[in-house]
UniProtKB/TrEMBL annotation:
SUPFAM superfamilies: Ribonuclease H-like, RNA-binding domain, RBD. Pfam families: RNase_T, RRM_1. It comes from Cyprinus carpio carpio. This is RRM domain-containing protein. Keywords: Exonuclease, Hydrolase, Nuclease, RNA-binding.
Length: 653
């Protein structure tokens, strides 16, 4: 998912509304802003490396065969009936009725003993339905055995009034059903009598027939999934019979389908597939059924051999060559001019809501889905220029690191203030305020933790008769600062992380002081808060292996020699070297406060909607799916606003 127009600053400015992003995703990384090309274009055109084993070996099959959906599912040499049965997971995915499944309450279960072998009998099944006030209900059932003999062909009277007989397809008429007294329970009993314990049911999209019969059977061969296509598409039974069996069924000159004929066609298609094997079926019908060419020399293949090097392999091409399907959903489909529709299906959506709706419909049909949410950028274009907006966001974040300290002695200097506060954390700027009744200082810390520790430890400190007090700015942007800091403290990324200040800058003492914290538990890593500047930091972030150790370390006063260490919960996420970049405040004289406030409320609602849509997509993901959310960042006039990348593998809880 790409949240177009968002930066890292947006996430932390509106941290409270990003409930799904901050709680569902276990990894978070700062992302360099995109170079200007569409991020999805960079993704699909990125060069990938071919592994050594693939470089040394070249499969003799052409790509059209090697990556065919039938070959990918069943392999080249698969044989035997049992290897073509739907698995339990596939049945659930394809909405088959299963024992204990949702919507299967009251369904009849066949007396299957689970002992299916390659010699188990096949039974073709097909039903015809009519539309009643309760939906589609079965009105005719046909069952054929392995020899092709029709052992059941029964009309069924549904319990609910019929609205539409669907005669064109079902062949059922009012006159035909009038004398019928057979009910669904009668047909269920007959099926249970006819099917042996190791029976395998065969049908074309058999899930609908079994649901109409209110029947659960665990051993199924579905011909629509045997002769499979890309992207979840399915061949019609009539087309399969015509191409593979050279047989005409469902003739237009006859009114309605014959379920015995359809059941027999499905049975013969399954028997043909099992007898020939997937490789032979694909080879024989690659052109007439799947409409694909199979050239003798596939020079376009990107897989390289030890004697021949090909052009660089791009990610989009690699997906296509490996038979993996990709789809792009969003307002702009210009993902990459070099990628064909075969390599990445594209679907233009008019809104973020449509992106989510389409994705939930097609989620099971693609290996890679790229979702672009553009509503925020569109909203921003209607409210303010991007640079002005980002400037405001950074100012709001920087306010969290600002303190006013005073009163100070009349002869106080910036050096004095720096010496007074450096034990709490790195300072970005110090500015003396002489126009107040007494001298004060405006201090901007690099990290949130420095400002927090200064608040806790400076109040009441006396310098030359002046009792120092540290306070937050009295400003509308800081009214909810305590709540926002509490959210930062409870960030899942920070639960095992603490911030330590006033460490010694001498290497041997620095290590001894850090060693002291091992009494609270095993330490995973230590990051100096000034390592990015190439210095030995007086402040560090310590990550423990468990959250209890971090909690214990925060609750203890530590003094080593004459140096007292200050400890607090980490507030800055580990992927950031500082809370914000330096900001220069430039206020436009023609911007009204009322307009800014209105825009702020609008943008906050937009962030909340985006987060809700991320949550909906996440819930639709299958188990073990890798989910990546990207806030692309922004680059303009040499100024970088970093993006953010969230990563998580969805697992059952």
């Amino acid at each position: 998912m790409v949240l177009d127009g968002l930066t890292q600053s947006h996430f932390y400015r509106y941290f409270s509304v990003f409930r799904h992003l901050r709680n569902r995703y276990s990894a978070r990384w700062t992302l360099a802003p995109s170079s200007g090309d569409p991020l999805t274009s960079d993704l699909l055109s990125a060069e990938v490396t071919v592994c050594d084993r693939a470089a040394e070996t070249r499969v003799e099959l052409p790509a059209a065969m090697r990556w065919h959906p039938v070959i990918r599912r069943f392999g080249l040499s698969t044989t035997g009936l049992t290897n073509f049965l739907l698995t339990q997971q596939e049945m659930i995915k394809q909405k088959y009725p299963v024992k204990g499944g949702q919507g299967c309450e009251g369904f009849m279960c066949t007396e299957s003993d689970g002992g299916v072998t390659d010699s188990s009998p096949l039974f073709g099944l097909d039903c015809e339905m009519c539309l009643t006030c309760a939906g589609l209900e079965v009105t005719r059932v046909a069952l054929v055995d392995s020899s092709g003999r029709c052992v059941l062909d029964e009309l069924v009277k549904p319990p609910n009034p019929i609205i539409d007989y669907c005669t064109r397809f079902s062949g059922i008429t009012r006159a035909l059903l009038e004398p019928v007294s057979t009910r669904l329970a009668d047909v269920q009993s007959r099926l249970l009598q006819l099917l042996p314990p190791d029976a395998v049911l065969v049908g074309h999209s058999l899930d609908g027939d079994l649901r109409a019969l209110h029947l659960v059977h665990p051993h199924v061969v579905d011909t629509s999934l045997l002769y499979r296509q890309e992207f979840g598409r399915r061949f019609k039974l009539r087309h399969l019979a015509q191409v593979v069996l050279k047989r005409e069924i469902q003739s237009e000159v006859r009114i309605g389908h014959d379920p015995c004929e359809d059941a027999l066609a499905a049975l013969h298609l399954a028997q043909y597939f099992i007898r020939k094997g997937p490789r032979k079926v694909v080879e024989d019908h690659l052109e007439d059924l799947w409409d694909l060419e199979c050239p003798e020399d596939d020079d376009s293949d990107h897989v390289i051999s030890s004697k021949r090097h090909s052009s660089p392999l791009r990610f989009g091409h690699a997906l296509s060559r490996s038979g993996q399907s990709a789809v792009f959903l969003g307002g702009s489909v210009e993902t990459s001019g070099s990628l064909s529709n075969q390599q990445c299906r594209r679907h233009r959506c008019s809104s973020d809501r449509e992106v989510v709706c389409v994705y939930r419909r097609v989620v099971q049909s693609y290996t890679l889905s790229v979702l672009q949410f553009s509503s925020f950028r569109n909203t921003l274009n209607q409210t303010a220029a991007m640079e002005t907006h980002l400037q405001q966001v950074c100012e709001r974040l920087q306010q969290m690191c600002v303190l006013y300290v005073g009163p100070l002695p009349s002869d106080a200097t910036e050096t004095l203030v720096h010496r007074l506060l450096k034990r709490c954390g790195h300072l970005r700027t110090v500015r003396l305020l002489h126009y107040t009744h007494e001298v004060h200082a405006e201090v901007v810390f690099v990290h949130l933790e420095g400002a927090q520790l200064a608040l806790e430890h400076l109040n009441g400190l006396q310098i030359n008769g002046c009792i120092i007090k540290a306070r937050r700015p009295v400003h509308e942007l800081c009214l909810d600062l305590d709540e926002r800091l509490s959210e930062r403290q409870n960030d899942p990324l920070n639960t095992r992380l603490i911030y330590v200040s006033n460490l010694s800058s001498k290497p041997h003492r620095h290590e001894d002081q850090l060693q002291t914290f091992r009494q609270f538990g095993a330490i995973q890593c230590v990051t100096s808060a000034a390592e990015h500047a190439g210095k030995r930091g007086r402040h560090a972030f310590i990550r423990f292996e468990c959250a209890d150790s971090a909690q214990a370390a925060v609750g203890v006063d530590l003094q080593i020699g004459n140096r007292k260490l200050s400890v607090c919960h980490a507030l800055t996420p580990p992927h950031m070297t500082s809370w914000t970049r330096p900001v220069t405040t430039e206020t436009s004289p023609d911007t009204s406060e009322q307009g800014e406030e209105c825009d702020e409320r609008l943008l906050e609602r937009q962030m909340k909607k985006l987060d809700a849509r991320v949550g909906k997509v996440f819930r639709a993901l299958e188990e073990n799916c890798l989910s990546v959310v990207i806030l692309p960042g922004h680059r303009s006039d040499g100024v970088d606003h970093p993006g953010l990348c969230f990563i998580h593998i969805k697992q059952s809880t």
